[in-house]
Amino acid sequence: xxxxxxxxxxxxxxxVANIISAQVILKPNCNLGLATGTTPIGAYxxxxxxxxxxxxxxxxxxxxxxxxxxxxxKDDTQSYRxxxxxTFFDHINIDKKRTHVPDGLNEDSEAACKEYDKIVAEAGxxxxxxxxxxxxxxxxxxxxxxxxxxxxxxxxxxxxxIEANARLFNSADEVPxxxxxxxxxxxxxARMILVAAxxxxxxxxxxxxxxxxxxxxxxxxxxxxxxxxVVVADEEALTLLEGK
Length: 244
Ligand code: GLP
Fold this sequence. Notes:
Blueprint: E1 2-6, H1 9-26, E2 31-34, H2 41-53, E3 62-65, E4 67-69, H3 80-87, E5 99-100, H4 109-122, E6 128-131, E7 153-156, H5 159-165, E8 178-181, H6 184-188, E9 192-197, H7 203-211, E10 229-234
Parallel strand pairs: 1-10, 2-3, 2-6, 3-5, 6-9, 9-10
Antiparallel strand pairs: 4-8, 7-8
Bound molecules: 2-amino-2-deoxy-6-O-phosphono-alpha-D-glucopyranose (GLP).
């Protein structure tokens, strides 16, 4: 696990965008695993600027998002599909047919998850998986648990995640209680993993991810076993790290 220390959110966003754009330049038809949340917004904005300048071309890439709230569809402003379209895809030359997000509107969770597993399997492998990290160490929506998950599955969100994500809704009551998410094993299959983290809120999760025991109680800790995982984190997110 390689930790790159950056000053602040802006610095983090530029470095994350640099790594993603290098991947797209090196392999124009690559499979990118993408994430939602507030953490990657700055990186997406930077990539849009470089696209507008002609520095990076997204025409041939395919994307696979980590997760989606169960019950929300693309027209719902709180859905992750809506977020991806509005924050990133609508502003670049991507072929929307090659952008994938689990189908939150499929109420049959088994079918929805199976379908997403198939979509990802047919793509072969993900070249670069971008991840944020939850305050409790979750990745995608893989919450602390007794065992690491494998494929796409339906999860019950923890009270801590509901509370953390409530800031994006009118109230905590409106946050969906369930989500479809790629499993930890699927995430680990990506050739390269890029974790972005900023702010004091993430310091404990970042410490457990980088220096803690590998345990499903901190799902991100398994990334220590990946052979090409890069963490780009700012000073605040790294404050609790022993070896910082
Ligand atoms: C959400 C998402 C994760 C994201 C995390 C952190 O619940 N499912 O993919 O990494 O929470 O979000 P943020 O970047 O807003 O702190």
